[in-house]
Specification:
Number of helices: 16
Shape: globular
Number of strands: 26
Largest sheet: 6 strands, antiparallel
InterPro entries: HET
Distance between the termini: 44 Å
Protein name: HET-domain-containing protein
């Protein structure tokens, strides 16, 4: 969509310096950078500090907040207050080394040379370039979001090699307002990730009936608040083209929808950046540009500029050193709480939008967030990289997660149509194929992870979802029963990690027939052929007393004896168990014997259908000793 004629946000230009009292202005920049051996500073009495704060000293203003947190320290008749920093720390706050100031000096407590009784801690961090060229933050002032986002983009573009390895694609559909001829590579464009919300909250869409009209012009006033905000932000960041799913895909054309859905890896992977309306539940709530991040994070901070210059030297355009001082120490996991806490992350489609985008600018309820391949940061400390998977370097996408991590995250998200289960993940699967060279992908499973990954299991929920299996009222094929995508519940693979895998149980064939042209999308059918299968006939007994109320855990019976336990994938199976021939397939061994619960088909060619997972206790291992290896087909 060409958004060149649409309005934009206007950024203010204002660069006042830091106002400091005589005592605070005498603090050398070397104290903050760690270059000074002196780790103690003598300041002034609390009463004097409060007086200077009222006169406008920014450093006194935040430091005098510390004693106000402690009733025993609010008296004004304290002796001179002292400030101490750690002798060894990371001045930029990038590592876990604590950048903490300790406030001491209360005469009513005995202060040991090495131990502070009731210490008051402040967080601090040097502000590196290019963030130090932004307007310094003051307590009580709102933060300008657009200049910060511009610095994020500039820093990533100029310094992040991993974020610049993407090639342009000519397969991206860009809707524009006029006839545009492109010479050379395709233009840069922005993508939007958002929640549609209920039908009553949907913005306008492109349909067969409106396609001609959309190709001619899309009036700005007809767009939802989220779409309008994304256009304003894009124009403010000097971007002309914006890709929005509901406008760039013909929603009532099944063929167009299927072909465009298969291109999601390209659409988001090749965009310049993605705007994510993280805290908006539907398209009417907009991209929230939270400016008061000091209140949103409940941790006020101030930027102090220090200049080290000799006689006759003038202050340069930017300070010699900028320090950001926080009312309390900043937590390392700040970005994860901000990113994960948003309605957008409850939606299944948005997982691949976030993971595939090289750069994501999220608008959370606490303020803007940045994510790219090399930096994940908040507006509190926009230069600090916060990594969820510490030490993980060989995972997939920006999060460095394993495929099983991706699936566990994805399966816990909501999806309006169960038939979209694999379609909404196809972009990630397509992009992950490079990491699974030679592996076959069917139904959300990679052949190199089998057979152990077959032993996924559902996670109890507060409310039971409707089973996603094919029923008389749902004629459409969903997924093969052995795939996690066949259930409507969140799944975990945690039970797959321990144990000794059976090396004699092998995948001979893994087949999936695509419903459309996309081999990573929806299926018409799928089958898995295993050789070396050890099967034992069992019965599924009564529910286990005291088991979790939201799971269907039952006793595994053999010749009237309880030999293990069973966890069914769907409670709806319970009343049909006595009609089916049920068996146990051994997958791996870890003290006990773990595997799948299968239903044998009526006819020999019908194969076996998964019903759940089960465990045979080790004291009953003899019931497996008479089993002969077989070749079976799972459907």
């Amino acid at each position: 969509m060409d958004i060149s004629e649409c309005p934009s946000f206007q950024a203010k230009v204002d660069r006042p310096g830091s106002k400091l009292c005589k005592i605070c202005s005498s603090i050398p920049a070397s104290f903050w950078s760690g270059k000074s051996k002196n780790i103690h500073l003598k300041l002034q009495p609390l009463e004097s500090m409060r007086f200077e704060a009222e006169r406008g000293c920014q450093l006194c203003g935040i430091l005098q907040l510390g004693p106000s947190r402690d009733a025993d320290r609010q008296s004004g008749d304290l002796e001179v207050l002292k400030m101490r920093r750690p002798p060894y720390y990371d001045p930029f706050g990038v590592t876990k080394a604590r950048s903490v100031l300790t406030f001491i000096g209360d005469t009513r407590h005995v202060i040991s040379p090495t131990v502070d009784l009731y210490p008051l801690h402040f967080g601090f961090s040097l502000v590196p370039y290019p963030w130090s060229r932004l307007k310094p933050a003051k307590m009580g002032e709102h933060v300008e979001n657009l200049p910060l986002i511009e610095v994020w983009l500039e820093n990533c573009r100029d310094n992040h090699a991993q974020c610049s390895t993407f090639s342009d694609s000519e397969d991206i559909r860009l809707v524009n307002a006029g006839e545009l001829d492109f010479d050379g590579p395709p233009p840069k464009y922005v993508t939007l990730s958002h929640c549609w919300g209920p039908p009553s909250k949907h913005s306008i869409t492109t349909t067969k009936a409106t396609l001609s009209e959309r190709m001619t012009r899309i009036p700005f006033k007809t767009l939802s608040q989220t779409f309008q905000d994304s256009i304003k932000i894009s124009r403010s960041l000097k971007q002309r083209f914006l890709w929005i799913d509901s406008l760039c895909i013909i929603q009532d054309d099944e063929d167009d929808w299927a072909s465009e859905a298969a291109l999601m890896a390209l659409v988001y992977g090749h965009s310049y950046f993605t705007l994510a309306a993280l805290s908006s539940r539907d398209s009417t709530e907009g991209c929230k540009m939270v400016a008061d991040i000091q209140s949103s994070y409940s941790n006020r901070f101030v930027d102090i500029d220090f200049y080290d210059y000799g006689p006759g030297q003038n202050k340069t355009r930017f300070p010699h050193q900028r320090v950001r001082i926080f009312e309390t120490p900043v937590r390392i996991d700040e970005i994860h709480e901000s990113v994960d806490d948003g309605p957008l992350n409850d939606r299944a489609w948005t997982l691949q939008e976030r993971e595939l985008s090289r750069r994501v600018i999220s608008f959370s309820k606490k303020g803007p967030l940045w994510e790219c391949t090399e930096l994940r940061a908040t507006s509190q400390r926009p230069w600090v990289h916060n990594e969820r998977f510490q030490g993980a370097t060989n995972g997939l996408f920006k999060s460095k997660a394993s495929w099983q991590d991706i699936v566990e995250n994805y399966s816990a998200r909501s999806l309006s149509k169960q038939s979209d289960k694999l379609v909404a993940l196809s972009g990630l699967a397509h992009a992950a194929q490079e990491s699974y060279q030679g592996a076959t992908y069917v139904g959300g499973m990679w052949s190199t992870s089998l057979p152990r990954a077959l032993r996924w299991m559902i996670v109890p929920q507060r409310s039971k979802p409707e089973p996603a299996y094919q029923t008389a009222t749902e004629p459409a094929y969903i997924e093969p029963s052995w795939s996690w995508a066949s259930v409507g519940s969140p799944v975990i693979f945690g039970t797959c990690s321990p144990g000794l895998a059976r090396h004699d149980l092998k995948v001979e064939e893994m087949v999936g027939i695509p419903k459309y042209q996309d081999p990573y999308g929806a299926l018409q059918c799928g089958a898995l052929v295993l050789s070396g299968a050890l099967l034992v006939d069992i019965d599924v007994g009564d529910p286990i007393t005291g088991s979790h109320a939201l799971t269907d855990d039952r006793r595994m019976m053999k010749d009237g004896v309880s030999v293990g336990d069973v966890s069914l994938d769907a409670p709806a199976f319970s009343h049909l168990l006595r009609q089916w021939k049920v068996c146990f397939l051994l997958i791996d061994i870890y003290s006990d014997f773990h595997g799948l619960i299968l239903r044998e088909g009526v006819n020999p060619d019908d194969g076996y259908t998964r019903l759940g997972v089960g465990t045979i206790y080790k004291r009953f291992k003899d019931i497996l000793s008479h089993c002969k290896p077989r070749t079976i087909k799972l459907v």
